[in-house]
Amino acid sequence: MTNCTDDCHPPSARRHACPRNGKSYPVVSTTTLLHHLEQPWQWNLAERHYYFCSDPDCPVIYFGDDDSVIEQTGVRTPVGLKDPSDTALLCYCFGVTRADARDSTIKAFVQQQTRQGVCACQTRNPAGRCCLGDFPDSKEGIVDCR
Ligand SMILES: [Zn+2]
């Protein structure tokens, strides 16, 4: 059995196209998947890579190398990125909703915490990466808390 750990590929290096919208997205770590999948023991996470589709209009949350897809029903955490409401969570580490994220004071708070390395994006955010890129007015990929 191939045991692919996070060390076998640098974060974001491995990409795959979402079978629903055709766009390419970075791989998600096994650690992230274990914290968010429904019944994670049913998945053979060591044999397949999974990727996170960050398109707000696409129902797919995770998809595999084999083009299998996992939507919200297969994920324990409500994915705020896919929910346009103001009460949807964008920052899972500090409980920041979409409405909160428009407040520059709250955004500054999150930036300060991430700079100090006290965020837990890899486990708390279903995307496995820093939430700041999902805040309004942020350009994806510009902000990285690690
Ligand atoms: Zn998609």
Q: How many separate domains?
A: 2
- Taken as a percent bin, the fraction of beta residues is 5-15%
Shape: globular
Radius of gyration: 15 Å
Say how many strands there are.
7
Largest sheet: 5 strands, antiparallel
pLDDT below 50 for ≥5 consecutive residues: which ranges?
1-9, 140-144
Mean pLDDT: 87
- Largest beta sheet: strand ordering: 1-2-3-4-5
Question: Helical content, roughly?
Answer: 10-25%
- Ligands, ions, cofactors: zinc ion
The N- to C-terminal Cα distance equals 30 Å
Order of secondary-structure elements:
EEHEEEEEHHH
Description:
The chain is an alpha+beta fold and 146 residues long. It has two domains: 6-74, no CATH class; 80-134, Arc Repressor Mutant, subunit A (Orthogonal Bundle), CATH 1.10.10. Helix content is 18%, strand content 14%. It is globular and about 45 Å long.
Give short descriptive properties of this protein.
Arc Repressor Mutant, subunit A; 7 strands; 2 domains; disordered N terminus; 146 residues; two-stranded antiparallel ribbon; binds zinc ion; five-stranded antiparallel β-sheet; alpha+beta; 4 helices
Q: What's the gist of this structure?
A:
This protein is α+β, with helices and mostly antiparallel strands and 146 residues long.
Write the layout of secondary structure elements.
Blueprint lengths: L14 E3 L6 E5 L1 H7 L13 E3 L9 E3 L4 E2 L18 E3 L4 E2 H4 L2 H12 L5 H4 L22
Antiparallel strand pairs: 1-2, 2-3, 3-4, 4-5, 6-7
The structure holds zinc ion.
The site of zinc ion (ZN) has 7 residues, from loops.
